[in-house]
C-alpha cells in the first residue's frame, strides 16, 4: 500500500511538472505573441505619427500659401482703389479742361 501511494505521489509530481512545463511553454508563446502584437502596434503608432507630422507640415504650407495669396489680393485691391481714384481725378481734370476750352471757343465766337 505504501509503495502504491508512493507511485501515486510520483505520478502526481510528474503530472504537476508536465502541467507546469506546458503552462510555461504556453506562457512563452503568449508572451511571444503579445510581443509581436506590441511591436506591430508600435510600428503602426510610429507610422501614424509620421503621417500626422507630414499632414501638419502640408497644412502649414497651405496656410502660408493662403496667407500669401490673401496679402497679394489685398495689395491688388488697394492698387485697384488707387487706380480708380487716379482715373477719376484724370476724368475730372479732362472735363474741366474740356469746359475751359469750350468756354474759350464760345468767347472767340462772341467776339
Structural write-up:
- This protein has 111 residues and is mainly α.
- The protein has one helix and no strands.
- It has one helix at 2-110.
- The model has no long low-confidence stretch (mean pLDDT 82).
- Residues 12-21 have a biased composition (Basic and acidic residues).
- Residues 1-11 have a biased composition (Low complexity).
Described by the principal axes of the CA atoms, the overall outline is: rod-shaped
Radius of gyration: 47 Å
End-to-end CA span:
161 Å
Name the helicity range: over 70%
Low-confidence stretches: none
Biased composition (Basic and acidic residues): 12-21
Biased composition (Low complexity): 1-11
Region (Disordered): 1-21
SSE diagram, text form:
Blueprint: H1 2-110
Biased composition (Basic and acidic residues): 12-21
Region (Disordered): 1-21
Biased composition (Low complexity): 1-11
Brief summary of the model shown:
With about 110 residues, this protein is mostly helical. The chain is about 100% helix and about 0% strand.
Entry keywords:
mainly alpha; rod-shaped
